[in-house]
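Render this sequence as a predicted structure.
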Amino acid sequence: MTVIDILRNKTFNNFGEMYYSDLQHFNMRQTFVFIITALLISSCATSALKLGTEVEDWTTDTPQSLDEIYHSIYLIGDAGGAEADSSTLPLLRLKTQLNIDNREDKQTDVIFLGDNIYPVGMPPIGHSDREEAEHKLNVQLESVRDFSGNITFVPGNHDWYEYGREGLKRQETYIENYLSQYNEKFTDFFRPSNGCGNIDIMNISDDISLVTIDSHWFLTDKEEEYDFSDCEIQSRNQFVTAFKDSIALLKNKKVLLTMHHPLFTTGKHGGNYNLSAVLMPLSKLKKGLVVPLPLTGYISTKMRTRTSPQDTKSSEYASYRNYLIPPIEDHGNIIVAAGHEHTLQHNQVNKVNYIVSGSGSKRGPVGLEDYTKFAYGNYGYALVDYYRNGQIWLTFYASSEDDDEFGIVYRNQLF
């Protein structure tokens, strides 16, 4: 009798439990593989919408009218994966929303949270991949071409890949040359600038400061590979000191901290993989290669989570979190927004709200942790509205689970 036979014919209690008589038909190896497979199936993440246990029916709690909003910020990340000759659904929806939105452009920001070009950054002019890279940027730039508010592009790890700091500079130049044609009053669209690890601060209203950092610069040891002598910050130690000092100076401000890598996540970079990634790990290397290797998949995903600097359980990522979280919590009035995960998330830890909005062109699996209020693995973006009475509201716009509609899938009052 095979595992498939038992799955078809027998009753289970919480995956992995079966009648003892059936176990007698397995040798030790079959039993081990079956148990591992059953545990994996029961614990794998999915893209389905998930709400925390403390979240009540969010549709019954509504904010005040748009007239009471004094500043708004759209957040969309990982939007650099458009296919040739096409845009992405979130970018098309964002463009439409900006055009019909009753919010004033001068009181609105749009922030792209990194990975603006997949799979690697901006090639030099004349390179065979240059046209494709330009297209992936162009569809993002087109979505905000008619928008006259502040626009910020944040660097992500894929923007650094292959071409390093020079590729990042080329991307910055391309973005700013494009957008400056339509917005002469504001020309600084890429921050931090010049591939540096500087702490970028911009006051976007009388009481709101936008702080932007290059998290991949921190996570990757580039001090020996690149010359940062032209940068204000040249080492991780200097970064940490500057970050603490900057946050302390903004004690009386409402702060939106933006970067690419999230400090809290329930996606794959936090160790939550979907079933196919675990059961058929070779399919990630080549499409259509669907060889069942559950034990190999289990080991490889666990190892990646702990060894890749891009995943939260690695030593590099642990340092990143350990240095940034204490000053954030000490401030007490910071919202943290990131991409990296191809999901939408609202996590709340020690009264700090952590937003993940990385579904600009891709989607992925999410799990549910004790600190999770909302998690969803479909295409979309986030919006943060600041009201005159002091309220701050977070809204996620996304595709429905059957992909038939695109609209509000979650909102919550922050703080």
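Summary. The CA atoms of residues 194 and 218 lie 15 Å apart. The first strand starts at residue 50 and ends at 51.
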